[in-house]
Write a structure and sequence with these properties.
Elements: H1 2-5, H2 17-98, H3 104-113, E1 119-131, E2 144-146, E3 152-155, E4 173-184, H4 187-198, E5 203-216, E6 219-230, E7 242-247, E8 250-255, H5 258-261
Antiparallel strand pairs: 1-4, 2-3, 4-6, 5-6, 7-8
Length: about 260
């Protein structure tokens, strides 16, 4: 009895030391297992949350990619329409250039209406000349043909030139000049004719080449010559008294008389 009371390690307990030690070890193992399960649950929870977040991001990415492809298709369609519009404009420019904007009836009618009393035209000559259009220089960056992968295959010659962009067809341009010769009773009639021609919206660069005195049947007259050019932007609709008449699918401009224009 005296030995049990003198051992301080037992603390007055009647339980064996091995049992107390095993119980403490079991409590430590349970706590360690609980902490392990807690950490494992946290790791699994974090993985699940990250996986769900990744799936949500993936879905949003697919939606953005689908929207991008849709917008890209719309952009390609707009580019195609823009190319067709440019092509149609170029064709329209060519057709407009080939179309006679000022019919000869309107041209002669405008000159006739400019003739004052006492003046007579003897010669009216119209000459046309095609203006040479200088093509723009090609871009040196476009002289090489590229494959679908963007690799250069050489200069655009021979077979490689088949994929090159065709040259742009420029609308033809024409320059028309007129020369009017005639006789007048006096210089005032010639001056009135010049003033009337200069006021016309069809003509430009009106110049009096010469005016000389001549005699016809013992009557003195003033012989003259006037030159002018037909303006590039001249149209029959600019002349007062003109009416547009359609015959079939062709439109014609008919000049009215001076009384109609008034």
């Amino acid at each position: 009895m005296s030995k049990l009371s003198n051992n301080p390690s037992q603390g007055g307990s009647f339980l064996p030391a091995e049992y107390v030690k095993g119980k403490s070890q079991l409590r430590a193992n349970i706590i360690a297992l609980f902490l392990f399960v807690l950490v494992l649950a946290g790791v699994v929870g974090a993985f699940v949350v990250n996986h769900q977040r990744w799936r949500r991001v993936n879905v949003e990415q697919e939606m953005v990619a689908a929207a991008f492809e849709e917008e890209a298709a719309k952009i390609d369609q707009l580019k195609s329409l823009e190319g067709q519009r440019v092509e149609l404009i170029e064709r329209a420019e060519v057709v407009t250039a080939l179309k006679d904007r000022v019919p000869r009836s309107v041209l002669i009618g405008e000159i006739v209406r400019s003739i004052p009393e006492g003046l007579t035209l003897t010669v009216l000559n119209l000459e046309g000349e095609r203006v040479r259009v200088v093509l723009p220089k090609p871009d040196p960056k476009d002289t090489k043909t590229r494959t679908l992968k963007g690799k250069n295959v050489g200069k655009g010659k021979g077979k490689d030139a088949k994929g090159a962009k065709p040259a742009k067809v420029l609308p033809p341009r024409f320059k028309f000049s007129l020369a009017a010769e005639g006789i007048a009773v006096d210089n005032d009639d010639v001056a009135d004719f010049l003033a009337s021609i200069k006021a016309s919206p069809l003509f430009g660069d009106v110049e009096l080449q010469y005016i000389n005195e001549t005699t016809i049947d013992k009557q003195k007259y003033r012989k003259f010559k006037v030159t002018m050019i037909l303006l590039e932007k001249a149209e029959a609709s600019l002349v007062d008294g003109t009416e547009e008449v359609e015959i079939g699918n062709v439109h014609f401009g008919i000049a009215g008389s001076s009384t109609d224009s008034e």
